[in-house]
Amino acid sequence: MRDIVSEQDVDEVLAAPVAILYKHSPTCWVSMLAQREMDRLDAAAAGAPVFRVDVVRRRELSGRLAAALGVPHASPQVIVLREGRAVWDASHGGVRADDVRAALEPLSEDSRR
Nearest to residue 73, comparing CAs of 36, 108, 3, 21? Predict the structure, then answer.
């Protein structure tokens, strides 16, 4: 999992063919649970880069991502992107590694065509 700490990192997320964005708050217990799920996903090599943005320390970058993707801000939140567009998202207790992997499956099938 790679942390988003700069504007260049935001540009990289938005330019990736497929990417997973995880919005995390270090002060929220629900985010701590979601972080465990995202660690499970990362460890299983999801087939797409996983990026994390700290919504407290990197508020401006998190805001830029929310505006660019058109997905209302939530934390914790996971967004699957394809070519800079949000194609799937979940927040709070809906952040589950298995669900993210399932959301990626149609994207993998499309890339084989």
Answer: 21
Looking at domain 2-111, its CATH superfamily turns out to be: Glutaredoxin (3.40.30.10)
* Spans of all domains in the chain: 2-111
57: left (phi over 0), alpha (psi -120 to 50) or beta: alpha
Per-residue pLDDT reduced to its tens digit, 6-40? 999 999 999 999 999 999 999 999 999 999 999 99
The sign one gets for the Cα dihedral 34, 96, 12, 71 is negative
CA–CA separation, 34 vs 78, rounded Å?
9
Find the helix packing angle between 97-111 and 29-43, rounded to 10°: 40
User: Is residue 56 within 8 Å of 27, Cβ to Cβ?
Assistant: yes
Supply the pTM of this predicted model. Answer: 0.90
